[in-house]
Design brief:
β6 and β7 form a beta hairpin. The protein is built from 6 helices and 10 strands. The protein is α+β, with helices and mostly antiparallel strands and about 210 residues long. It folds into 2 domains: about 150 residues, 3-Layer(aba) Sandwich (Glutaredoxin); about 45 residues, 2-Layer Sandwich (Antioxidant, Horf6, Chain A, domain 2), CATH 3.30.1020.10.
Length: about 210
């Protein structure tokens, strides 16, 4: 029984395609090629931690849109439940949920993306975040337990880091923030290793060099 929930997307490979009903109509993942997509799951509608997360995601939706990111939520609830919850959040909290929420009653998407962890629950998705690039490739995944909400600034930071990597062909060091120095990729051969220290980078040694972009 547990095995059917163990499908897991692979970083660097195409994200599993799907078609699903959402609060904003039918969507197909492959239709979003050319945009980055962030899919996040929540355990259930009308629950306290999830409500705080949806409010937090809504507050950064415009910022994500400016970064060419399509945000989508998901839980194993009906579209009617999602719509009622969206309305409740607007009425009680004064927050409009601007992004689509996937209704996944048959767990089709949840199973493809490894969102069901029976050690937590066999009927609710854990808190996952999937980062899919504009070519449809899975670039990063973050998993959280049912009990703890996500830190939204880290999600924003990671998207900016991934987009910086793509644009400049660099890596980002621990605790990197936009504007910080980036890491020059390690030398691929002995010749690059020998010339690295004379290339104008800020080098701690031949394998660890930084530059400003």
């Amino acid at each position: 029984m547990c095995g059917e929930f163990n499908a897991m997307p692979i970083i660097g490979e195409p994200a599993p395609d799907f078609q699903a009903l959402t609060t904003q109509g039918m969507v197909k993942l492959s239709d979003f090629k050319g945009k980055w997509v962030v899919i996040f799951s929540h355990p259930a509608d009308f629950t306290p931690v999830c409500t705080t997360e949806f409010i937090a995601f809504s507050q950064v939706a415009d910022e994500l849109a400016k970064m060419n990111v399509q945000l989508m939520g998901l839980s194993i609830d009906s579209v009617h439940s999602h719509l009622a919850w969206v309305r409740n959040v607007k009425e009680k909290m004064g927050v409009e949920i601007p992004f689509p929420i996937i209704a996944d009653l048959d767990m089709n998407v949840a199973k493809k993306y490894g969102m069901i962890h029976p050690g937590q629950s066999s009927t609710a998705t854990i808190r996952t975040v999937f980062f899919i690039d504009d070519k449809g490739i899975m670039r990063a995944m973050i998993y959280y337990p049912l009990s703890n909400g996500r830190y939204i600034p880290e999600i924003i930071r990671l998207i900016k880091a991934l987009q910086t990597t793509d644009k400049h062909g660099v890596a980002t060091p621990a605790n990197w923030q936009p504007g910080d120095k980036v890491v020059v990729p390690a030398p691929k051969d002995q010749k690059e290793m020998n010339t690295r220290l004379s290339e104008g980078y800020e080098c701690k040694d031949w394998y660890l060099c930084f530059k400003q972009i």
